[in-house]
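quick q for whoever's on today - can somebody do inverse folding on this one?? i tried earlier but teh output was garbage lol. tokens:
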């Protein structure tokens, strides 16, 4: 029943109240009330039923985590001679926040709303619930229309698309990525060209100089087909929120961009995901299909409530990766005691590989440590935050003293800093 129907029914009861004093009004008031009830029932019967409703949902088969994903609804009534007032609600996945839940409209209608998923995996849409009003707008009839739909929620790939767009325009500096090549960088032959004053003496090609009579230089390019292996810690600390998403989510987003750029550079990319045991192992390969395999592999990953076993993970890695590789370990640290196993294993990896430990900072912790306290509780929170950050800095310092490359950045600067370090390592032929 609509508000208009409820108001009409309440007004019809007014004579019934008066009948308590004037008895002769009793039967007329009963007749009026029954008449209003009959009109409400008739209006309900004349409202379009579910068999006349048509609803179509246009939604991507793959939603992106942490970003608004547009959903379009088309709702109409068959053989309707007039616009129909209705309330429309789409049964989206319960754990995915929507920008709008219920939308009042006139049918036929084209409706839009956005979904911002915070977790990866597979989710299911239900039907579209439509509550339509009768011609007199006294009653409503609720029905479902449309079909159920299953979608996948993948990590955010907007950084990959932004990279491609900026590469085409030659504007990677907008992302904070430095792509300047210095003469003599790399180990693979690229071409022989005329020398310029800035070329180092060691790059002069004396045979070509003697043959052509002009001073010639050999230009080298970074070596290709080098293995880049992403190690994702899915342990307890990676489940801590850093903004709307967890640290594991931010690590996966940065790792996807690293893998994409590595594959575009001709390198081979692989994956090792672990907590107390190895859950995903993807051998390093080249080609576009490897990126799709990487996305499928990280889609179901979720942080667990247990501590990671670095000994087991890196022992597994050593069994199937003997060639020197860049090992990007996405993890988190608290203090040197908690991170002792990580420090030990990274020092061992350094004998054969090039380990790079990547940690995600929590900007909220930095804000608390910098905020001027206004009372005793805030002073205590600041002291705790400062202590945590100090212990974290000590752990990263121990890793660097062991010869391990480190990156500690928040979600906003993590991807460009990671790419700059990767490109720098490629240019300096440290792989």
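ok took a stab at it. sequence:
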């Amino acid at each position: 029943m609509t508000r208009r129907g409820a108001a009409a029914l309440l007004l019809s009861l007014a004579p019934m109240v008066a009948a308590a004093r004037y008895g002769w009004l009793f039967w007329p008031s009963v007749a009026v009330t029954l008449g209003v009830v009959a009109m409400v029932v008739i209006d309900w019967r004349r409202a379009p039923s579910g068999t006349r409703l048509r609803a179509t949902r246009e939604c991507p088969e793959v939603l992106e985590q942490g970003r608004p994903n547009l959903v379009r609804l088309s709702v109409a009534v068959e053989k309707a001679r007039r616009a129909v007032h209705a309330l429309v609600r789409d049964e989206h996945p319960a754990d995915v926040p929507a920008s709008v839940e219920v939308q009042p409209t006139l049918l036929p209608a084209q409706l839009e709303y956005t979904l911002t998923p915070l977790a990866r995996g597979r989710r299911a849409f239900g039907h579209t619930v439509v509550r339509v009003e009768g011609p007199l707008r006294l009653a409503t009839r609720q029905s479902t229309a449309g079909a159920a739909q299953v979608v996948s929620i993948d990590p955010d790939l907007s950084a990959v698309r932004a990279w491609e767009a900026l590469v085409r325009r030659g504007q990677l500096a907008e992302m904070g990525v430095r792509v300047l090549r210095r003469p003599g960088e790399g180990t693979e032959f690229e071409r022989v060209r005329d020398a310029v004053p800035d070329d180092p003496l060691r790059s002069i090609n004396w045979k070509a100089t003697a043959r052509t009579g002009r001073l010639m230089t050999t230009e080298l390019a970074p070596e290709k087909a080098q293995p880049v292996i992403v190690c994702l810690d899915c342990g307890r600390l990676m489940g801590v929120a850093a903004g709307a998403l967890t640290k594991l989510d931010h690590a996966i987003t940065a790792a996807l961009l690293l893998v994409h750029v590595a594959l575009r550079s001709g390198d081979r990319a692989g994956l090792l995901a672990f907590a107390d045991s190895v859950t995903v192992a993807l051998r390093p390969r080249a080609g576009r299909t490897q990126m799709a395999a990487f996305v499928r592999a990280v889609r179901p990953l979720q942080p667990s409530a247990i501590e990671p076993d670095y000994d087991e993970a890196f022992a597994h890695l050593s069994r199937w990766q003997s060639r020197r590789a860049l090992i990007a370990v996405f993890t988190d640290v608290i203090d040197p005691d908690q991170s002792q196993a990580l420090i030990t294993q990274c020092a061992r990896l350094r004998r054969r590989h090039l380990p790079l430990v990547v940690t995600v900072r929590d900007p909220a912790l930095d804000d608390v440590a910098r905020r001027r306290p206004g009372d005793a509780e805030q002073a205590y929170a600041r002291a705790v935050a400062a202590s945590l950050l100090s212990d974290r800095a000590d752990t990263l310092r121990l890793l660097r003293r062991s010869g391990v490359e480190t990156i500690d950045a928040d979600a906003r600067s993590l991807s460009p800093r990671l790419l700059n370090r990767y490109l720098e390592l490629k240019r300096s032929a440290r792989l």
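fwiw The first strand starts at residue 53 and ends at 58. also The two ends are 72 Å apart (CA to CA). so keep that in mind when u check it
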